[in-house]
């Protein structure tokens, strides 16, 4: 692999892992006084569902870069749309929505784009090396 191919390969994966950790951190707000430990654990698990879903998408993209990249782009776009709909309900101004989108949805979309670029670069490099694509 060329240097750029390796950078795209690992950047896509590391960015997605960091986004999973960021979204998963929001589940920690379920712990606090006033509720039983079982209710707190239930809330914690429920709030981890987006991170678990994103981790499953990462595993798909790790194995199959092109379809996984497309799925991540669609998932990031859907998440951005969801943020826009819930933000308008909570009277979120443009800059509030923009910063929320850039922190939560855009890294997922960018990770999907990087998976597609990595797949393209690997296939291009294998063709120029005389191999068939996908090896």
SSE layout:
Elements: H1 3-25, H2 37-47, H3 49-63, H4 65-89, H5 94-104, H6 106-128
Helix pairs in contact: 1-3, 1-6, 3-4, 4-5, 4-6
Folded structure, characterized:
With 135 residues, the protein is mainly alpha-helical. It has one domain. The chain is 80% helix and 0% strand. The chain contains 6 helices and no strands. The radius of gyration is 18 Å and the shape is elongated. The two termini are 12 Å apart.
Tally of helical segments: 6
Largest sheet: none
- Domain unit count: 1
Determine the strand fraction and express it as a percent band. under 5%
Average pLDDT taken over every residue:
87
- Tell me the distance between the termini: 12 Å
Helical/strand content category: mainly alpha
Large-scale geometry: elongated
Number of strand segments:
0
Question: Which spans of ≥5 residues are poorly predicted at pLDDT below 50?
Answer: none
Fraction of residues in H or I helices: over 70%
Secondary-structure element order, as H and E?
A: HHHHHH
The Cα radius of gyration reads 18 Å
From the structure provided, what is the oligomeric state, counting identical versus distinct chains? single chain
Features:
135 residues, mainly alpha, 80% helix
Short structural description:
The protein contains six helices and no strands.
